[in-house]
Design goal:
The protein is α+β, with helices and mostly antiparallel strands. The protein has a single domain, classed as Class II aldolase/adducin N-terminal domain (L-fuculose-1-phosphate Aldolase), CATH 3.40.225. Helices cover about 35% and strands about 25% of the residues. It has an 8-stranded mixed beta sheet with strand order 3-2-1-4-8-7-6-5, with helices on both faces. β7 and β8 form a beta hairpin. The longest helix has 27 residues. This is Methylthioribulose-1-phosphate dehydratase. InterPro entries: Aldolase_II/adducin_N, Aldolase_II/adducin_N_sf, MethylthioRu-1-P_deHdtase_MtnB. One of its GO terms (molecular function) is methylthioribulose 1-phosphate dehydratase activity. Its EC number is 4.2.1.109.
Length: about 220
């Protein structure tokens, strides 16, 4: 915990302030139905062996803002300060993504479109997206670029998903889907993670509507 105590109070407040803004915007878009979804943001120095991040508390109504919306945890998901709050159920997923990527922020939401495409393409274990302009949001500039967004198994015991993240994460693609559950998107900071999340949601809706049109022919 000593590494966490060296992080300034100003930095902790900055992170929580940015978090509060992102949470409010996502709530206004209806991305937290039924308290679902979670957000995290890394804070302080990073190494794969030791890092800290703020994460949404479990079971909170994310359409409201309270002093107990977030807590700080370490690379093991252990709270860094005395608290009665419990980290989000998906904290183990955030931990692994941070460990593998060194990301600065990770946003996980549930939407109708990301749930539908995760089931539609489950047999191939990835969502194929080709030639859509918004692929450039992931810094992929190839003409008619094609990406395959990984789909992971939706285990009720969330830590069982972690080995699939380790195995399936594609360094080019800052996101992954959990079958009939939701999307995790990340970036070097909150701005980039938000940009990536918005791009994924646009692309998933595009894929859904394109499949619908093709199946009517």
């Amino acid at each position: 915990m000593s590494g966490f105590t060296r992080i300034s109070l100003e930095e902790k407040r900055r992170v929580l302030g940015e978090f509060t803004e992102v949470k409010a915007e996502f709530a206004s878009r209806g991305w937290f139905a039924g308290t679902g979804g979670n957000l995290s943001m890394r804070i302080g120095p990073y190494s794969p062996e030791q890092f800290f991040f703020a994460v949404t508390a479990s079971g909170k109504d994310k359409t409201r803002s309270t002093p107990e919306d977030f807590l700080f945890v370490d690379q093991d998901g252990t709270p860094c300060e005395t608290t009665s709050l419990k980290p989000s159920a998906e904290t183990s997923l955030h931990r692994e993504i941070y460990r593998l990527t060194g990301a600065g922020a990770i946003f996980h939401i549930h939407s109708v479109f990301n749930n539908i495409v995760s089931e539609w393409f489950w047999d191939r274990r990835s969502v194929p997206i080709e030639g859509v302009e918004l692929i450039k949001a992931f810094n992929i500039w190839d003409e008619d670029a094609r990406i395959d967004v990984p789909i992971l198994t939706n285990y009720a015991d969330v830590p069982r998903i972690v080995p699939e993240i380790t195995e399936r994460l594609d360094p080019r693609i800052p996101g992954l889907l959990i079958r009939k559950h939701g999307v995790c998107a990340w970036g070097k900071d909150a701005f980039e993670a938000k940009k990536h999340l918005e791009a994924f949601e646009f692309l998933f809706e595009y894929v859904y509507r394109w499949e619908l049109l093709n199946n009517r022919k």
